[in-house]
Structure formats: C-alpha cells, structure tokens
Amino acid sequence: MDNVQNEVKQLDVEMNMAKTLAIIANIDSKEYTDEEKAGAICLIVLKFIETEKISKESMLAVIKWLFDREWVVNENYEVIYEVQGL
Length: 86
Description:
Layout: H1 2-25, H2 34-48, H3 56-67, E1 69-73, E2 79-84
Antiparallel strand pairs: 1-2
C-alpha cells in the first residue's frame, strides 16, 4: 500500500510541476488567474527550483509581470493578497 501511495504522491508532484511550468511559460495568458501565476512562481522559487526547464524568455516575462506587483504569501506558499501599483 505504501508503494501505491508514494506513486500517487509522485504523480501529483509531476502534475503540479507540469502545470507550474505551463503557467510560467504562459505568464501573460488570461487562462490563469493572478493567484495561480503567483503560486507557480512561488513553487519554482521556493520549492522546485528547476529553472533549467524554463526558457530565458519566460523568466524575463515573469520578472516583467512581477515588477509592479507585491505578493504576500503564507508558509504554505498560498497567496494571501496582492498590492498593485508600487
């Protein structure tokens, strides 16, 4: 049973990573909410740190997107609120 649970957890991590990478690659897309975008950025920066899978263009787009935003994130990497216009 532990093997099955471990495989399910691994699949969940892989699926989260795939979605995270998709969000990062499409940071300007209206398909994702600002909260999903901020969450994906937090996962890359604070948890996964697999930046070799992210293109330079995507990283620059993320930096541009973040430039005039300030996010407050809790210890579970959940966005609490956003302050705009800094």
